[in-house]
Amino acid sequence: MADSVPVRCPTYRRENAFTPPTFPCACGAPLTLPVLRGGIPVEILHRTWQSSWVEVRCEVCGRQDQWPAPETGCACGTVVRIPVAPAPTPSPADPPPASGRGYPQPGVPAARPPAGPGPRPAVQRPVFRPVTIRTARDCVTAAAQYLKWLGFTDVIRTQERTASGVDLRGGGVVAQIDPTTRSTRLRDIECLWLNGLTDAAIPVFFSLAGYARDARARADELHLPLFVMDLTGTPQPVNDPADELIKYGATGR
């Protein structure tokens, strides 16, 4: 685990301990964001997608990529973004920067290591027994049953829905369920993906009303499985990552 560093709240003038997050590089090495000691934290008053990322080089393989910018909150309610040491200017011999943000290879979920040689066999499983949906709580129950059917046997419901919207957690998986009658938005997809990245888990989304066009496109880029649910409680795959998850289940992580 990375050493914690003191971060001074610009509002409360109080120092709080902060531990820089660690992410998995494509090479398999843990990459800890190099928080700039002595750097001045910036209060977040307006959040944008672009400002939420920082460029960091892996010390093991030299790969340079973009990762979620480190943030922390104070007891007074202030949320700050913590500066990191700037990425060095690549020399001609350095590998080119990877495309995509936050994870080196778009199309690969955070928890999935590079595929081994040879095709993976499809998982054989019994017929899924759905849970009829009458309430929003039934949606979460149906999604939990479906993930267990896929092989994530230790999936549990979160005690209280987090600010980021995670409803279910298990070994190697996080899931969000949208039981509303509006199409799921882009921001919901990106927030769930960040949770999966932080937990080194596959993020899976279930929606009752489907997905906005930009949300669907972003999920495809991030290789995030999308499912829609009908009132019978049977999730249906929306994109290729969902089809792949059904085919290989938890064993495909």
Question: Can you offer a commentary on this structure?
Answer:
The strands form 5 sheets. The protein has a 6-stranded mixed sheet. Strands 5-9-8 form a 3-stranded antiparallel sheet, with no helix packed on it. 31% of the residues are buried. It has 4 helices and 15 strands. It has 253 residues and is of the alpha+beta class.
Average pLDDT: 80
**Fraction in beta strands:** 15-25%
H-E order? EEEEEEEEEHEEEHEHEEH
- Per CATH, the class of the largest domain reads Alpha Beta
Order of strands in the sheet with most strands: 10-11-12-13-14-15
Number of helices: 4
Task: Tell me what the CATH architecture of the largest domain is.
Answer: 3-Layer(aba) Sandwich
- Find the CATH topology of the largest domain: Trna Endonuclease, Chain: A, domain 1
Radius of gyration: 20 Å
Shape assignment: globular
Structural class by secondary-structure content: alpha+beta
Protein name: Restriction endonuclease type IV Mrr domain-containing protein
Biased composition (Pro residues): 87-98, 111-120
Region (Disordered): 87-125
Organism: Streptomyces gilvosporeus
